[in-house]
Each structure stands twice: as structure tokens, then as C-alpha cells.
Amino acid sequence: MDHSQLDWESLMMDTIGVYRDTVSSITAFMEGPGWGVPIASNLNGSLMKAMSLTSPKGVLKQGAFIVSKEGILLGRTMGKVDKIMDYLHKTLTVIDQEKGEEEDL
After folding, report:
1. What's the CATH fold of domain 3-104?
2. What is the DSSP letter of 47?
3. Is the pLDDT of residue 1 over 60?
4. Contacts of 58 (CB under 8 A, 6+ apart)
5. How, if at all, do strands 39-41 and 63-67 pair?
6. Could you tell me where the DSSP H helices lie in the chain?
7. 32-51 burial, b if ≥16 CB within 10 A, otherwise e?
């Protein structure tokens, strides 16, 4: 599963990647085929540290967060891309089901 297979629009959500790379490195990476996620540069890693994306030894890890429009943290995971995408899919499925139940009330 990749980012394009997740139904962000029906949940009125989107995603953004944050990388600890230079803007030029990120730009080159984004020019690759099939990349559809906007990316921000966080060269000093301050956002990643603030969001606790570090190992006990202080190494920055890959991770993902689902944050509501109100700024509430709905979900968080760290790991390899496959694990992150699986987590996002499962979490968005639950959010979508809950949204449908609320609309039925």
C-alpha cells in the first residue's frame, strides 16, 4: 500500500512528510516517479525531536502522526515505511467508520 491508496479526501485530511534533509535533497527525491506527498525540510530535527521520533540513543526514526484539524493527536507510529503505511491504513479505516457512525446519528 502506498500513500495514493489511502482515502484522505473523504476524511478531509491530508499528509505531509518531514525530512531531516536539505531542501535541494528533498526536491531531488520528490522528482522520483509516483511521489505525491508534500515534504517539509527540518534540517535540525527539532520537529522530530519534539514529536518523540527518536530512539533511546537519540537516533531519529521514521514515523507518522495523524492529527485532527483541531490539532488533536489521533494516532502515532514509528518504523519502516511498510509498517507506517499499514498503520495509517488501519487507523484511517477506523476513523472513517467512526465518522460514518456519527453521521448516522
Report:
1. Glutaredoxin (3.40.30)
2. H
3. no
4. none
5. unpaired
6. 23-30, 46-50, 81-104
7. eeeeeeebeebeeeeebeee
The residue type at 33:
P
Which grid coordinates are listed for 29? Answer: 527525491
Asked whether 103 and 10 are in contact (CB, 8 A), the reply is: no
Give the pTM: 0.59
90 CB-near residues (< 8 Å, 6+ apart) = none
CB atoms within 10 A of CB 83: 14
Give the mean model confidence (pLDDT) for residues 58-74: 77
103 to 23, 73, 96: CA distances (angstroms): 42, 22, 11
Question: Which one-letter DSSP state was computed for residue 21?
Answer: S
What are the sequence ranges of the domains in the chain?
3-104
Beta strands 63-67; 73-78: pairing state: antiparallel
17-57 pLDDT, tens digit per residue, is 778 888 888 888 777 765 666 778 888 888 878 877 777 78
